[in-house]
């Protein structure tokens, strides 16, 4: 799934860009890295659920993690803790992942509304 792959790429990029924070800001950077990692983890967990309702729930949690992560790196940029170029790189890939998630959620909601989802293994 492309959105999951891009979310993993975002986590890798984030880890590289935020790993060098000073001791005073390590907890803050760790929280940002964790919120970014949560995006792909929730996509994966939702995908492994049997019901579309559960899948959508985990995708919405993933979307919330996207928002949390955006707030983190935006704050870092405003506080001059990351460079403008690092901010732009993170923002570009984050925007892509967020929009892919929104499209996936919309698509699954349409399937759910049309009752085009099989919860059984038959």
Provide keyphrases for this structure:
mainly alpha, 122 residues
Task: Report what the structure shows.
This protein is mostly helical. Helix content is 79%, strand content 0%. The protein contains four helices and no strands. α2 (26-47) runs antiparallel to α3 (52-78). The longest helix has 30 residues, at 84-113. The radius of gyration is 16 Å and the shape is elongated. The protein starts with a helix and ends in a 9-residue tail after the last helix. 28% of the residues are buried. The mean pLDDT is 92.
Task: Give a quick summary of the entry.
With 122 residues, this protein is an all-alpha fold.
Strand portion? under 5%
Overall body shape? elongated
What is the averaged pLDDT score? 92
Q: Specify the structural class.
A: mainly alpha
Helix content: over 70%
Secondary structure elements and pairings:
Blueprint: H1 2-18, H2 26-47, H3 52-78, H4 84-113
Helix pairs in contact: 1-2, 1-4, 2-3, 3-4
């Amino acid at each position: 799934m492309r959105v999951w792959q891009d979310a993993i790429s975002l986590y890798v990029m984030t880890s590289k860009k935020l790993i060098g924070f000073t001791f005073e800001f390590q907890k803050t950077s760790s929280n940002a890295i964790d919120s970014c990692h949560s995006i792909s983890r929730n996509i994966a967990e939702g995908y492994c659920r049997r019901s579309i309702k559960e899948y959508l729930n985990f995708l919405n949690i993933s979307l919330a993690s996207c928002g949390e992560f955006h707030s983190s790196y935006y704050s870092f940029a405003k506080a001059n803790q990351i460079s403008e170029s690092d901010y732009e790189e993170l923002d570009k890939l984050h925007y892509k992942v967020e929009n892919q998630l929104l499209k996936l959620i919309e698509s699954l909601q349409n399937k759910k509304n049309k009752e085009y989802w099989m919860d059984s293994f038959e």
